[in-house]
Q: What sequence folds into this?
């Protein structure tokens, strides 16, 4: 569109598709502050089902944004999700692109 062509610096192609989905965006936002979280904490934070959260975590893991550790505490399985250094960089880049978008939309023409 004309509006997108006029936006200085913003390029929608630079938005990371692995992050851009609503649940994945929530996961990345949560982990950017916490660094790591249990599966249950992310499930509560994202208000999603086990299966849906698993699918989104797998997509972020395949992109190299998170690392998923599975362990046992006693006999109980515990899954912990960590933001990777590459994931932190991708998150910062994603936020930078959103800032460019917001700055360019807020400029009078």
A:
């Amino acid at each position: 569109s004309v509006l997108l062509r006029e936006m200085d610096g913003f390029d929608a192609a630079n938005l990371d598709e692995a992050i851009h989905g609503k649940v994945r965006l929530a996961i990345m936002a949560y982990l950017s502050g916490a660094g790591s979280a249990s599966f249950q904490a992310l499930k509560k934070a994202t208000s999603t089902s086990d299966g849906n959260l698993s699918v989104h975590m797998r997509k972020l893991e395949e992109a190299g944004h998170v690392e998923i550790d599975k362990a046992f505490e006693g006999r109980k399985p515990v899954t912990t999700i960590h933001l990777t250094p590459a994931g932190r960089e991708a998150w910062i880049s994603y936020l930078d692109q959103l800032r460019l978008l917001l700055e360019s939309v807020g400029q009078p023409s």
Remarks:
- Residues 85-105 form the longest helix (21 residues).
- The chain is about 60% helix and 15% strand.
- The CA atoms of residues 66 and 84 lie 5 Å apart.
